[in-house]
Amino acid sequence: KIIETGIQQPLPQTTYSSSMTAELISERFMVASSTLRNYPSSFGNLNYHIDRVETDKLLLWIKTPLKQKEQSTKPIIEYVAPIAVLTGDAGYGKTVVMRDLLSRLNQERIPTLAIKADKSTFSRQQELVSELQLGDDLIKQAYTLSDKFERIVIIVDQLDALSQHLSANREPLKMYNRLIDQLANIPNVRLVIACRRFDLQF
After folding, report:
1. For residue 55, which of 74, 107, 120, 154 sits 20 to 30 Å off, Cα-Cα?
2. At what angle do helices 138-148 and 125-132 cross, to 10 degrees?
3. Model's pTM, two decimal places?
């Protein structure tokens, strides 16, 4: 099941950007996403892969401009938040969908960073940036890419691995929540998050 999150207010434009070029940032994103890219997506030795309709739906959502809702009583325009959540029970195949989505985005040369939250559990964004060898603050990099590309995608797989019933340390989950909130307010950024249905509800 794919859920598009609710309404958010767009933040003002900013000059907050990275000292790295957009091309170099894209290359770093590609390398940092290797854990998800190399995730097995076929059955055993048969090399048999099942394409999932969720992958096509997510790709279409990423490419489609965000809906706008103009309020008649206020002189503002609300934007649907650029976050999609793929939910399902354990064993549903969410990671394979995320892996296939990453592959499609790479083929279309859309800058994409894929993070497996079950492999990258940190309490500070700086630690995550260091582990992924991004070379600079992720928020700054996203702003730099936003100036050049119509779409930038951040994939966070298995966010449920950080939930309270799996871990007593809540700091990594708080860190991801802060990161997602910041990225969601950057123009042209789309976030795709995979999470078990139970953890999304509770």
Report:
1. 120
2. 70
3. 0.81
